[in-house]
Amino acid sequence: MAHWSDVIAPAYVRNVANRYMVDNPLEAFDIFPAVPTTRLTGYLAKYNKSDWFKVGSVDAYRRSGATESAGDDFATDKQAYTIEEFAFHKDVTEDDRNEYDNPYDPINDAVDFVMNRLSRVLLTNLIDTYLATGVWANNIDLSDSSYDQWDATTNGISDADPVAYVLNWMELILKTTGYKPNKMIITWDVLKALKTNTKIMDKMKTTNDKVITTDLLARLFEVDKLTVLSAVNTTATDFMLTKKVFLGYTPPRPTKFAPSAGYHMTYRNFRRESVQTRKIIMEHLNNAVRIEGKIMTKPLVVATDLGCFVDNVVG
To answer: What is the pTM of this model?
Structure first.
């Protein structure tokens, strides 16, 4: 017997879900590279810092005539992971489907509702994992340090020089790892302080830029990517995160031959989809159709010395 939901193709639901994630990406995921996996548990290979800096005797590398070159191998550590599943659903009734008026579309709206909720859950999980005190080897609190908070002013002139501060924090990482940080996350209130910072505006006088944009700030701070975290909290009373800056290094692509501050493991099914959806007939709910989405992932902090977390950046 045909069911009213037969017109809703599972492939259509999948396409809508994947389209939503493409149109509304979790930019924090771009900071920490994704490692696709088909294993629910396993090990992530990561580099051993001491092996990369090892040199030994320079004489061992000198060669003359038909002799073998010096040789060695690199050592790798491993880190265990267990994929976690995050799932959410919305039920669509036959009345919802048959009696809607444009511009409403109950199926598209249901998929978008599910994916929006999952996105917010995942973003919260990322914040809890990466953007907290005590996670990284370098932790700085601007309310209790020799630095000025970025919104502090004297006679209308900014007290803080954010570019100089960021260069100092980069140096903390560079001189202990050999890698210059290339990624940065700031919260919305920090962006506001940067846009009105007089020292940054003075630096702009020698450029063609007339507006302080995130692209300009990325160039000033010499990072490949700068992300502004502006998601609103659950009660819609403030942002999820405020007064924070994260600075770190991650490679262009995941590899055990180079370090990374963090990765997020992402499980993919046989269709190589990271977002998985289902259409379920709920007979006991008056034959409603359940639109369910799930994402299976695990954010990992890999190299704590490649990150710098700064709190109370503004007052």
So the answer is: 0.85
> How many separate domains does the chain show?
1
pLDDT in tens, 83-120: 999 999 999 988 887 776 655 688 888 888 998 898 88
Q: What pairs with residue 299 in β-bridges? A: 264
- Is 127 contained in some domain? yes
- What does the alpha-carbon distance between residue 116 and residue 2 come to, in Å, rounded to a whole number? 31
Q: Which of 237, 232, 233, 202 is nearest to 220 (CA)?
A: 202
Task: Give a yes or no: residue 238 inside a domain.
Answer: yes
**β strands within 182-244, DSSP E:** 183-187, 225-229
Q: At 300, give phi and psi (nearest 5°).
A: -125, 130
Q: Report the CATH number at residue 228.
A: 3.90.1690.10
DSSP H/E element including 84: strand 84-92
Residues 72-82: pLDDT tens digits? 776 678 889 99
pLDDT in tens, 252-271: 888 777 789 999 898 887 66
Token readout for 53 is 């800096």
Residue 202 within a domain: yes
Long-range contacts at 113-117 (CB < 8 A, ≥ 24 apart): 114/17, 114/88, 114/89, 114/90, 114/277, 114/291, 114/292, 114/293, 115/17, 115/20, 115/21, 115/24, 115/275, 115/293, 116/20, 116/24, 117/88
How many other C-beta atoms are found inside a 10 Å radius of the C-beta of residue 254? 19
CB burial class (10 A; 0-12, 13-18, 19+) of residue 32?
A: buried
